Amino acid sequence: MVREFTVMVERDPDSGWLVGEVAELPGCFTEAPDMPTLRANLWEAITGYLKVAEPAAGELTDFVERWHVKAIA
Question: Model confidence at 49, in pLDDT bands (50, 70, 90)?
């Protein structure tokens, strides 16, 4: 089965590295110094996650929406 996943990418303010998290796979994330390496690392992280989670594949969440909220601190 082919699935499409939503990846959120942020830059760590301390290290400057990129951090990618897969919205539909809780706890599935990785980091890298640049975008090409992050993409490769994410592919590996997703593949590994799905191998372990395969018996419960029907229980994976579906990404619905992402919001940007401004707050005054």
Answer: very high
Q: Give the C-alpha distances (Å, rounded to integers) separating 14 from 32, 34, 37, 60.
A: 13, 15, 19, 32
Please tell me whether the overall predicted TM-score, pTM, comes out greater than 0.85 for this model: no
What's the CA gap between 55 and 37, in Å, rounded?
29
The structural domains of the chain, with segments of one domain joined by +, span 7-59
b/e code 28-55 from CB counts within 10 Å (16+ = b): bbbbbeeeeebbebbeebbeebbeeeee
Structure tokens at 16: 């400057």
Phi, psi of 12 (to 5 degrees): -70, 125
Closest CA to 38 of 4, 3, 9, 14: 9
